[in-house]
Every structure is written in C-alpha cells, then in structure tokens.
Specification:
Blueprint: H1 4-13, H2 16-21, E1 35-37, E2 48-51, E3 61-62, H3 68-73, H4 77-93, E4 98-99, H5 123-139, E5 143-149, E6 162-164, H6 167-174, H7 176-183, E7 188-191, E8 195-196, H8 205-215, E9 221-223, H9 232-238, H10 249-253, H11 258-266, H12 268-272, H13 278-286, H14 300-310, H15 316-332, H16 348-361, E10 364-367, E11 379-383, E12 401-402, H17 408-413, E13 418-422, H18 439-445, H19 451-460, E14 463-469, H20 487-497, E15 501-506, E16 521-524, H21 532-540, E17 575-577, H22 586-592, E18 609-618, E19 628-636, E20 642-651, E21 665-674, E22 679-686, E23 692-695, E24 699-702, E25 705-712, E26 718-726
Parallel strand pairs: 2-4, 3-12, 4-5, 5-7, 6-8, 6-17, 7-9, 11-13, 11-14, 14-15, 15-16
Antiparallel strand pairs: 1-2, 10-16, 18-19, 19-22, 20-21, 20-25, 23-24, 25-26
Helix pairs in contact: 1-15, 4-5, 4-16, 5-7, 16-21, 19-20
Bound molecules: beta-D-glucopyranose.
Length: 727
C-alpha cells in the first residue's frame, strides 16, 4: 500500500501549477514514451513514462509477443502471469514505469479491429487471464493499465459512438474483467473513447466514481485514452485523474524535427485565436479515419482546468484528489524516495522463447483430419501470400518492432526435409500506423505471384501448408469475416491439388471458411508474434498445443448476436444498441439455436481424453457460501502426452418472471498435462459469479433451484454432468 503520509506532505508543498503538471501529460523529450509526465523536480518527483502495450513494448526493439487473444486461447493464468512479468521487465528496461496493458474489452463484434488485443468473448475467461497478466506486471514493479474502461467493443466510430447498454449486461459481461484487474492490483485504468449511455467514458461519473472507486475501492490512477477528453469540468468532476497525452500529435513528433519545433514555438493557432485549428477540422473531415480521436484541443487539464479551479468552478480539493492518486502511483512504484528501481537486463533470447511458448500454447487445432501431427519425413509445400514473414501483430498502438522474427517458411525449414515456397496470390497488407510512407505502393508494385506455380508446388509435395491471414487494425473494423484478397481461391485450388492440406489461419478472430470440408486440417494461430514459424513447426510436428477457442467461430457474420441488425452493429446515428443484452458470443448462439462452425472452448488434441466421476459440492465453509467445488477424473486415453483444458459450465435454473438467463456459462477451468494413459482428478473451484445474475433492482441475485454443472472439452462438448440444489 502507498505511504499516504509522504503523499500528503508532498501535496501540501505543491503550487497550483505544479499540481496541474501532475494531471496532464506532455511529450517525452526523448521521444520514447507513449505518455509522459514531467514530474516536479523541485520536490524530487521524477518524470514518469507510460508505454504501449499490450503485445509488447512499443519503444525501439522489444519482444513481439503473440496477440492477447492467443494468450486468451491458452486458458492458462500461470502462462499469463509470466507474459505479464516479461512485458513489465521490458518496460523497465526501456526506462518506463507504466505499461498500457492489458486490453480487457470483451469481444462482442467478431470483426472489431482490436479483438486481437483482447482476451475473449467470455467475462470469466477475460477476468481470470486478465487478472493474471496484471499480477505479472505489477509483481515486477511496473504499473498495469486495464483498458479501455468500458464498452469499447468496436473501432468503427469509437471516438463518438454511444454504447447504449443495459446495467445487467454491463455488470455480467463487460465489467467483470476490469473488476478482476482492480482486485489483482492494477495501478491504472484507462477510460475508453466512446460514450456509455450518454456521457463520454472520460467523464463518466457513475462508472468512474460510482463503480470503480466507491464500489470496487480502486485507489489508482484513472487515465484518459489518448486525446479522449472533451471537457475540463466534466472530466474533472467525472473522476478522471490524468489527461493523456496532453500534447498535440505534432508536439509528439517535434523531438525528431527542428523545423517542426520551430513552427510549434510560433504557436500560430493560439495567436490567431483559432481553437481548435481550422486546418485540423478540415483534415479530420476530409482525410482522417472516422475511428480516430480528434487530437485538438488536447489540453483540457492545462489552462482550462486551471481557469476552472481559479474561478471556483472546480474545487481545488477535486484537483488534490487527482494529484493524490498520481502521487500514490509514484509511491507504489518506489519513485518518491529519490532514485529509481534498477532497470533489469532482459535476456532477449529467453523472452523470444517465451513468445514461442505462448504462440504454441495459444494455437488451436480446429481440425487435425488424421493428418496432424506430421511424421517428420514429408516434403512440404508452404503456400500463402505472406508465409515468408512472421505475423507479429495487428495495426495500431500495439505495434511492436520485434527483436527478431521466424516466418512459417523458416520455421518449417528447420524441421522438414524439403520445403518449397510459393506466394500464390498477392501479399496481404499488415496495416500499420507507423509504416514509412511508400511501403504500400512498393507492395502494390511487386510482381504478381504465380497462382499456378503454387498449385503445382502443392501437388508435388507430400503435404501442403497454406498460410492465410487477415489485416486487422486499431481505428477500424474488418469489413467482413472473409479472408482478404484471393486467399479463399488459393486454399480451394491447393486443396484440389493435394488432399493432405493444412490451412494455418493467422487471423484476429473468426474468418469464413468456405473450404472447410475440402481441407484435411486447420490450425488457428491468431497473430503469433515474432516466434511465429518456430511455434507453428512445434505444433505441426507434435507438440500438443492445448489452445481452445476464446471466441465462437460462427459460419458467417449474420450468425452472431450482433449480426444482422444495424442498431446492434455498427449502430445508427452514433448510437450502438446492445439489444442482445447478456447474450454475447456463445450465450447468443445457444439462445438462438445457431450451430457455430467451431464452438467457444473448442480445440482438438493429439491425445484423446475421457471424463468420469464429476462431483460437485457447495463450498459452504468459504465467505461466499454459494460457490461450488467441483472435481472430475480426466484420463488421457492415447499413448502420447497431451494437454487438456477442463472446462466447467453452469446451467442455471429458470429465473423468475420474464428474466431469461444464458443456457450455460463458463464457471471455471483448469489446464492439465497428462502422459499417455495417465488419469488424474482435476479440481475446479467455481466462484459465485456464474451462479448469480444481476437484477437491476436487487443487484446480484442467486435464484434458488437446481444448477447443473458440466465438465468437458468445450461449451458444446460436455462429457460429465452433475447437479446441485441451491436454496
Ligand atoms: C489506444 C490506446 C493506447 C493509446 C496510446 C490509443 O489510440 O486506444 O490503447 O494505449 O492510444 O498509444
């Protein structure tokens, strides 16, 4: 806990100007940090650096870890804790104090551009894995930032859209991940760009002061998303502590350009009294993407807040509270005693291996088709527009410059006796917010790949491995669930030429798979990060990955609960209505009786698992009297080791009146590794959450009746069941 004595003593010394310096970011003079606070040198408060997150550290080179969604797919809090720790160590090594991770928004829209930065469509999986990431980061002396609080579930018009969402859905689906992060000790929470039921999140008193502070007891820093503020008074009273970045995009580039610095010194727009600059408005209208925030004006917590305090519109005590939160963060990080914690040396090779382990463990074997694992002596045709490059991530603030990369072709060449490579179709662009100008043009001018040569190569090899991908990015959603370009035709043609075809999907989520019945195997590797090809080879050659789908793979967009209703997505007149309520992801598929292509929790194994003897008991002795203790015997019936994710779902009794509950909800899970023939009793403690529903009048409610607990391999592959009566 923080030393409030020291924080209070400092606060008493600060002038109004100095207080204001602690609640608004500036640009980092070194140009390295994503967000920067200059501190107050006079009182020994040093500068503070914040850096993106969440796939790796966005500053110079760093380990490009797999997408957060891949970590979600590993269903393993222990692995997530290690990932968090590694991210924190690299944050420190690069000289920063706060990492802008993890991303905890629930996957509501399957094509949302940032799904790869989030963990799952399920609140419990999000909460469990997200909390572990937070523990890993905070345990290494770095502040974690749970983002984006809350209901930032699409990129399309994210800067303006109002998420009209009922309290029950907020409580049951969208908030639990943030609650778990707070309970796990997250030092910061970032508000989302969007509005929720009216107010912008950066000024949402009910959710910031009411829920986050008062109900959950959060005493860390509430930071805005970058340029996500709109009004000094509303943000100040709403509970926002820290405005970021507090600098214009030009300021942020200024350290790199003398001419720009000179221009900024002229402060033309201030002198001409144009605020925000007309030119920016024009740019925003005509050129800027509609998902990006308006970076002008950017200093609500600068002069405007000062004026509001001086004029008595905002009480100075309100500002003091913010400063106390910010100084509390400094104190927690050990930055107030003079000096800084040592920057640990990173063993980049060990982190590369961790990136490989996460990529492997997050891989989901959608179909193995009797083809996988490979034996080792087959010749391979590696086909696919980008198979010769690692897919290190999506576009946006999470982009990382990797320390090194292993492409699928390179990874396979380490193992297979012979690997040919043909692109087949034009490269799929990986959108980037930081690409040097001209790189798109270079790609377009590249010679057209030879489709027929790819098909011939596939026909000539023992096995064809087709690597496909999408190109998701922050700031916009994918147009559809179809693979971009001609990749589907390529898969079709290769599958025609060689029935031993494996498709490797490097995508940010579900894609349509019109060829699903024609290929032998499909492997989902998400965005696997810098160790991509090494992890892929591990899996194809027999490492049982253990990944399970953290999101439902529907056959088409229209099958999703948000699918064919504009109100639900992308919204009408800047309002997106969460009319599906709590029926997000598999909860919606179950209710609507729609068969998914691959259900939530699905993932094949190279082993074969049996389930027996599920027992369920009321965990009456604990504080939370209605939690359940379950255990089940799991047997590996194969003659090879395998990894199983044992998943427990709860099916509630009918709720009274007109309330409809999901048919089943994930209640707990455990990952086990079993040798061939090994049997083990696996224990799962199921917390109160999944037994309860949120009632808008009575709050969290447990309906009396019979609760059925199932244990099994996915939300639709349930192997054992047992019921328990709760009264
Ligand atoms: C993103 C945040 C990110 C911030 C700083 C914003 O555009 O939404 O997730 O941390 O930029 O780069």
């Amino acid at each position: 806990m923080t030393d409030t004595g020291r924080v209070d003593a400092l606060l008493a010394e600060l002038t109004l100007d100095e207080k204001l310096r602690l609640v608004r970011g500036r640009s980092d003079p070194s140009g390295h940090a994503t967000g920067y606070l200059p501190g107050v040198d006079r009182l020994g408060v040093p500068p503070l650096g914040l850096v993106d997150g969440p796939l790796g550290v966005r500053d110079r080179e760093a380990t490009a870890f797999p997408a957060t969604l891949a970590l979600g797919a590993a269903w393993d809090p222990g692995l997530a804790r290690r990932a968090g720790r590694a991210l924190a160590v690299e944050t420190r090594t690069r000289g920063h104090d706060v990492v802008l991770a993890p991303g905890l928004n629930v996957v509501r829209v399957p094509t949302c551009g940032r799904n790869f930065e989030y963990l799952s469509e399920d609140p419990r999986l999000t909460a469990t894995v997200g909390a572990a990431v937070v523990e890993g980061i905070e345990g290494a002396g770095v502040a974690a930032t749970a983002k984006h609080f809350v209901a930032n579930n699409q990129e399309r018009r994210r800067d303006k859209i109002d998420a009209v969402v009922g309290e029950r859905a907020l409580r049951e689906i969208y908030l639990p991940g943030f609650r778990a992060a707070v309970d796990a000790g997250a030092s910061a929470v970032m508000t989302a760009y969007n509005r929720v039921n009216g107010p912008y999140m950066s000024e949402h008193r009910e959710l910031i002061e009411g829920v986050l502070r008062d109900e959950w007891g959060f005493d860390g820093v509430v930071v805005s998303d970058w340029w996500g503020t709109h009004d000094a008074g509303a943000a100040a009273e709403g509970g926002l502590d820290l405005e970021m970045p507090g600098a214009s995009p030009l300021d942020r580039l200024a350290p790199h350009s003398r001419a720009l610095r000179a221009m900024l010194r002229l402060r033309l727009s201030d002198r001409l009294g144009v605020d925000p600059p007309l030119s920016w408005h024009l740019f925003d209208r005509l050129v800027a993407d509609d998902g990006q925030p308006d970076p002008y004006p950017y200093d609500f917590f600068g002069d405007r807040l000062q004026r509001a305090v001086v004029d008595g519109i905002v009480q100075e005590s309100t500002l003091d509270r913010k400063v106390r939160h910010v100084l509390g963060l400094y104190e927690r990080l050990g930055l107030l005693g003079g000096g800084r914690p040592d920057s640990p040396a990173v063993d980049w090779e060990t982190h590369h291996e961790l990136a490989r382990e996460i990529a492997r463990r997050g891989t989901v074997l959608l179909e193995t088709g009797g083809l996988l694992p490979l034996e080792g002596n087959e010749s391979l045709a590696a086909v696919g527009p980008n198979a010769d490059e690692a897919k290190v991530g999506g576009g946006g603030s999470s982009e990382v410059t990797p320390t090194r990369t292993v492409s699928p072709v390179a990874g396979l060449r380490e193992r297979a006796p012979r690997v040919t490579f043909e692109r087949g179709v034009r490269r799929v662009a990986s959108p980037s917010m930081y690409d040097p100008p001209g790189s798109g043009l270079r790609r377009r001018l590249a010679p057209k790949p030879d489709f027929d040569a790819a098909v011939d190569a596939a026909a000539a090899a023992d096995v064809a491995v087709v690597v496909v991908q999408d190109g998701a990015t922050e700031g916009e959603d994918r147009d559809s669930m179809a693979l971009p370009g001609d990749q589907d035709s390529l898969v079709d043609a290769v599958a025609d030429a060689n029935r031993r075809t494996v498709v490797v999907c490097r995508t940010s989520g579900p894609v349509e798979m019109p060829w699903i019945d024609d290929v032998a195997a499909v492997v989902q590797t998400w965005y696997p990060g810098q160790a991509d090809g090494a992890a892929l080879a591990d899996v194809l050659y027999g490492a049982d990955p253990g990944g399970r789908l953290p999101v439902t793979f529907g056959r088409r967009f229209a099958d999703y609960p948000v699918g064919d209703d504009e109100r639900r997505y992308p919204g009408v007149h800047e309002h997106v209505h969460y009319d599906e309520g709590v029926f997000v992801g598999y909860r919606g598929f179950d209710r609507d009786g729609v068969a998914p292509l691959f259900p939530f929790g699905h993932g094949r194994s190279y082993a074969e698992f049996g389930y027996e003897n599920l027992t369920v008991e009321r965990g009456g002795e604990r504080d939370d009297g209605t939690a359940l203790d379950a255990s089940v015997i799991v047997e590996n019936r194969a003659d090879r080791p395998g990894r199983e994710v044992v998943q427990a779902y709860v099916e509630p009794p009918p709720a009274p009146g007109t309330v409809i509950r999901p048919e089943r909800e994930l209640a707990g899970f455990a990952t086990v590794e079993l040798d061939g023939g090994e049997r083990r009793r696996v224990s799962l403690s199921l917390p109160r959450g999944p037994l309860t529903r949120y009632d808008e009048r009575d709050g969290w409610t447990v309906d009396p009746g019979e609760y059925v607990v199932t244990a099994g391999r996915s939300s639709r592959d349930r192997r054992a069941r047992e019921s328990v009566t709760v009264d």
